Queue: 2 jobs
Job 1
Amino acid sequence: MMDARGLWMVLCLLLLAHASLQQNSKKGNGKKVCLKGTKIHRKCFLANLVKQSFHAASDDCIAKGGSLSTPLTGDENDQLYSYVRQSIGPDEHIWLGINDMVTDGHWVDQSGSNVRFKNWETEITQQPDGGRNQNCAVLSTTANGKWFDENCKAEKASVCEFNIV
Ligand SMILES: [Ca+2]
């Protein structure tokens, strides 16, 4: 026979188990998977084949609850590059979520923070080389995912990224 204290302990354990089960099922229902596009690290990436200016592409991503793709590491850049090849094409460029509109040569992300990871093409050309005429950046699938600065009014495909953490 269990005394009152033992019964109380069992009740508490049951309540705890129930609470953690609920938490697990909540996690299961969360946005852990990418219904469309592809998952890279803790982000979903979704290609937009419509060719449009940097600002229009950026606005589209924001309207969808995301932002223009901005790879933070070489590995993420490589995976984004292969996703763009598969989803958009082997001879394409996509807008990245970085620009140097405020101060030429000072590249910032969509929140205005310094860009730490950069992947400019520097072997054949010396990117970024467009000065004040080119204040946006593209990732090129013809150059193995290397970056080029570009006129923000040019019309390019894009990829939006969504945080799924
Ligand atoms: Ca520039």
Job 2
Amino acid sequence: MIPRSRKTIFHIDVNAAFLSWSAVKRLKEAPGSVDLRTIPSAVAGDIEERRGVITAKSIPAKKYGVETGEPVVKALAKCPELVIVKSDFETYRRYSASLMKILKTYSPTVEQASIDEAYMDMTGTEAIFEAEGDDEPFPMNAATRIKNEIRNTLGFTVNIGISSNKLLAKMVSDFEKPDRIHTLYPEEIGEKLWPLPIARLYGCGEATAAKLNALDVRTIGDAAHMDESILRAHLGERAGRYIYHSANGMDDSSVSGAREETKGYSHETTLPKDVTAENYEPEVPRIVHAISEKLSERLKADGVFASTVAIQIKTDRFVRHSRQMQLPDSTNSAEKIEEIATLLLKRLLFGEQGMFSRNVKIRLIGVSVTKLDRGEFRQMSMFDFMKPAKRARRMQGTP
Ligand SMILES: [Mg+2]
């Protein structure tokens, strides 16, 4: 008997999302053309320049050893007939939105985790599916319906992981692909989770895996059977606790359908004394620098990137003005924020049309960053993938 208090959590993950979405779009535009998913193919950020890296690959490409995160040139050396298409974020955003829309018709509690992933709390929806007379028992019937509706109406496939918590649902959706449903309930972890190498544990980075290997912890099961205090002593309090609990399949975070995404960050400073063209330097650049650093830290701490930078000023007559600029790529860099903020301030204040030419004084300066994303909409560049491919795979939003 499954205890009543047990939750039913789904993790939905689009199979090779960028590649599938590019393939589906292509088929729609040219019906009867070759389906990219059936041939060795890959998505890359920057094909012409040959500097690009592979951001998604087809299953046939995988058979040639093509890896996510590797340079296009290297992938082509492994597989000369590899068909490469350029990433198309507008299309990806559209399919992502269509996917979420379908999911929300099955549960009120859907949490989008990245461009191609979501958690659903399906607890309590059993009666709805039973009433419809499906052959399979709940929750299999629900997962089958969701998976098939996505495939039939949107044209791409997903894997669904089912468990009683988010961690296990997430881990099991990564098992055999594509178009599959897997379960990983706490009573199944000995058989399905513990034999896996420790590096496969969600949230176990390479450095942690290396430390654990040195302790002769090779599998997730090895970690689960360690003394928690030993793990804490070697990995630090937080990491040790996390590894021990997650290796044992424990996770009590909830699917938050109501999660309010932060819209942006801003910071303002009242100047020690009113600023004119004469005393702009060095005070204002120093403040802009400090605020930019602060905003960058916030973005990094929350794992997000901003694509709009804005400045705000207040004059000595308490009138507010602001200017903003949209960036081609989102950023979390303090230098970039500072550069744009400085440019906007100079445009607003200096020159013939500038406010200083009208003898306006400034008493407050602010900088803000908005239009946040989790990094999935940035142009992928070599820089993003300088670390080994493993990190690339772990990167949220890099399907
Ligand atoms: Mg995916």
